[in-house]
Batch of 3 targets.
Target 1
Amino acid sequence: MTKDMPYRNEVIRYGVNVFLGDYSQIRQTDNKEVSKFLFGINPYIKYDIKWIGTGFGLHLGNLAYSTGDTHKATSSLPHKSYFQTPVFQQFYFRLGQQKYFFVDLHIADQFPVSSPGLAYQTGIGTGFGLDNGLNLRFGASFLEDAGIYISACLPIENRIVFEPVFLRTGKEER
């Protein structure tokens, strides 16, 4: 839901996401497969004014995601490369005019995902001078090696928002 107050130059977005899905991985050394059923609920709120925006939320449920540490040198074989938790925080911060040019930080906006790169993002964006909330962002994941992303926000009638994301990492298959 969006509450747009143009006379005060502020927008409040709030809502609840519900998600269901499967998480699976295969350990390459012995082909052991781990599979988990994921479910959760994500209440959130975002508050935006002309030059600054902030937001908070919580992911609650049976959550799992990749730890992103497959390149770390260890003396032993790890037992798993995912993290499981019933609660995960969500955070958003923007500085600059979303209509023209801004920088932002996102923690767990596209969560749960198998890639930690989508859980932790920082970038720059533009709204192309439009007032409808549409924007395009480019940035980096600060947990992935050479992780870069492109993301868009495509609002439809203040009720539905499409947010396609493409992430490219420097990881190579081994």
Target 2
Amino acid sequence: MTNLTRSKFQAHPFHLVSPSPWPLYTCIALLTLTTSGVLTMHGFNNANSFLTSAFISLILSMSFWWRDVISEGQLSTITFLSFKDKVLKIVKAIDNKEIVSSIENRHLLYPDIKEDQFGYYLAGLLEGDGNINVPAHGITTLNRVLNPRITFTSHINNLPLYAYIQKNLYGIGRFQKVNDNVLRYIIGDIKGITLIINMMHGKLRTPKNITFNNLITFINKKYNTSIEESKLDTSSSLSSNAWLSGFTEADGNFYIKIIEAKLKSDTRKRSVSENISLVFRIDQRAYDKPTNSSMLPVMNTIAEFMEVDLKKYFTLDKREILSVSLTSINKLSIIVNYFNSFNMLGVKHSDYLDWETAYKLFLSKKHLTIKGREEIRLLKSKMNSKRVIHSSK
């Protein structure tokens, strides 16, 4: 199918590459080139003309083929899945029974959220774990009008969270599972996109608000709507809504740090006492990659809220990271008071509850006893990557 006969409209919220005639034309040109080359070598009349024509045909067919490949790549709506440790990531839909089961059993593990806070929570979650894809305006080089798409990416353990979100968004969006660990929740229809825009409008705090406004501009132009530009939320008070709860669900970490006791030895001049501490931490890239905008303002706001200094470090691949870390037992009440007011809705809520239990052991000085330290070790053994989500199957 050539560019002139391709469909002008996308019939689905995802993109599939159209059939191409150029591989067949290239094969014919190669066969002709080989045949005419052999005839030329044997001195047949006019074989040179056929050889020249075959060579030109080969160049043209390959040029048109690569033109279409480049055009398809520029659509920016295809998610290219790479090999990881030479194992191909397989994308498949999640069974509807699994989604229904997640909703039915979710209330046993996680809290719900107040209606007036849902938009703030979604904004924070999107800015941490989400991606906004805005295609080019109008008809593309392949004569196709494309739709925008919002994608949330998380661990498969968070299926109950996204099933709950889908339920509260009146059933919009679809799920994908990549291998056994990665979950995608994709919203790609105009009704769902408009609903998300209205719910998050004016609630975003990071440079992703720029892309959010690009999405609004696209929707206004394509569907002749008049949605106003979303203003960046620059208020200093994070304790008034659930934005930080959603952002933490995506990028925050609660963990218990344990330094084991070590006796003095020939290689160790001093003994090391056992030390247990509680840590809450949020790390972010210094710059938002799609917009090349600094994350410094929002990370400064979080640091000020937690009454700590904002720190920076570089990864092994030389990426600059902004880090907010709270460890002082006297200041952890800031975090506890906030997350008890604005609960997280996914698997990280369970991490927080274990972390809070350890915090209470610290307040009661039980962490100084052998029994108390054993309780804290047990809590640590169940948190974060070690947490097991019991299936309802």
Target 3
Amino acid sequence: MDESTLVNAGAINDGPKASTSPAYGLQQQVLSPMETLAQSISTIAPSTTPALTVPLIFALSGAGTGLAYVIATAAMVLVALCIASFARESASPGSLYSYARASLPPVYSALTAWALFFAYVMTAASVMGGFLNFAYVFLDLLFGPRGAHVSPVLLVVFVAVAAVAVAYRDIKISARLMMVIEAISVFLIAVVIAITLWKHGLHLDTSQFRLRSFSAQGVRTGVMLAIFSFVGFESATTLGSEARDPLRTIPRAVISSALLSGVFFLICSYGEVLGFRGSPTSLGDSSAPFHYLSSQAGISPAGWLIDAGVLVSMFAATLACVIAASRVLLLMAHHGLAHRRLQSIHAQSETPGAASLLSAALAFLPVLVLAHRGVSGADIYGWMGTLAVFGFLTAYTLAALALASHLHREKRLSFGGGILAAAATLAMIAALLGNLFPVPPAPYRYFPWIYGAYLALALLWYWIAGPKPALND
């Protein structure tokens, strides 16, 4: 499919015909709709949320954990609808950057690109930390106290090298592997939650919906963590060249991943809060909640199987983030926002080899340093994940603004489209402010400064190097 290919794919409000961008040397139309969906689902890594994120949110929100996920789901669906509106009109490896580039002034589109690349790299680093955390769970099971002496640096090197090797070789193999891993993990979690709900009787736990059962401040803080459960749902948009019928399959993947994940998170949070009622250990203090829930459900081995699934899911998420980051970086290199050598495509596998290697290296290095200094995998997961949220919220906000600008320029800005763009923008700004005020404790209070310094350096590069003239993307 070349630059002149036009596909009538039902653009917004029956607007102009939609088109795909240049393929930039990537494989073309090799991924099925399910494999395209697998990219977004694996970047979200839904199986990690019940095991890691829900207990953290419960510690903040208590019985309001489910409400935090209701709010986060609504916000992410708004953003998904904005992104899908763009994805019905154009397909490009640049993801949200391409949409912003077509609708916003160059400096804002550059900001979108750098924010999105940062977000994918930091998410990859975060899930490497999660992998490290769960790896020690199994090392302790297999080797006892000796397992704690296995070098964390060795474990981080393993997951980084394995992820980049698969991403470098073949996007189709990567997508299939991610789909299988997540399907198994989510199925096991669903079985435990289903048995938990059955054992507690088919009735509504009204205590989780009473306003007096939780504080508004706790829920607001919990929403920020709940949003991290969703980040990366839009990563299917980076497969604009490689997905079949991308102007249909990618919008569906974006919306489906946000909705399906939201429903899954809501059910799991509800079931976990219910299942831990009366437990000697609070859900917020549990490091392995599914060990307890599986035991209560009468299927104790499932707890270890779920932890194994989460461990492998961390690898899948690392792989998905490297794939997404490399394709954004590839397009940035074509437009002068990154070094031109990153435009190179591997001759045999038709993947962005140089961009994949650099993306993996940038995710690996901070994890390597932190692990070497003795920082736990759980802390790495939380710290890098918080940094990633700043990047995603920036990119999502600019994507929503780009939609309004695009529709206005095309004279197709309806009342509904304006409300959608405004609601998504306000939701993301509110979430961003929620990460800043009140000022969080150390080290989280320093993360906005780290992110701000990164953006300042990115904009400095932009002004020095200057973007290339616009391409048809």
